[in-house]
Amino acid sequence: MDLTGKLLVAMPGMGDPRFDHSVIYLVSHSDEGAMGLIVNKPAPGVSLADVLDQLESAPPSGGPLHGVHFGGPVETGRGFVLHSDEYCSAIHTLTIAPGFALTATLDILEDIAQGNGPESSLLMLGYSGWGPGQLEGEIAQNGWLTCDVPSGLVFGMTDDKKWAAALESIGIDPLGLSATAGHA
């Protein structure tokens, strides 16, 4: 089972407050583990200008103002840009699935700042990672639901609506979920 390009939707009561109501886009999933980016948790008070300032790069001039998201608790000082797949970095862009690509080099931040970046993007600090079999175990323990990416959810919806929209895309009413799991 390869979940690359799918969403993980946190179940209530999963036990880790960092992932409460999280929606994670899975960048990679294999027998060696998984990596994903939380797409609905903004990093309060952090902007593209702040990131460029830290990297001692030119400030934005002409591009849209971008906030930054908390991609996950692993390597929170490392940056990633999840973006639409029409953009390709001169250095390195990984195409994940139709409509989605990932770039983790400074040139994309500079392109975004200049208004020459991808049509759609989310800037992330940190990522979510799992070792071999760990994610599968968390799914089996009712920590996560998985689903295809509904059109417009990742790039076209406000962060506060993504969790409910992901659940509704698989026919689940968020108000009907319980924090306790049962077995039939």
UniProtKB/TrEMBL annotation:
Gene3D superfamilies: VC0467-like. It comes from the Bacteria. The lineage of its organism: Bacteria, Pseudomonadati, Pseudomonadota, Alphaproteobacteria, Rhodobacterales. GO terms for cellular component: cytosol. Transmembrane segments: none annotated. Belongs to the UPF0301 (AlgH) family. This is UPF0301 protein PM02_14780. InterPro entries: AlgH-like. PANTHER family: UNCHARACTERIZED PROTEIN YQGE (PTHR30327), UPF0301 PROTEIN YQGE (PTHR30327:SF1). It comes from Sulfitobacter mediterraneus.
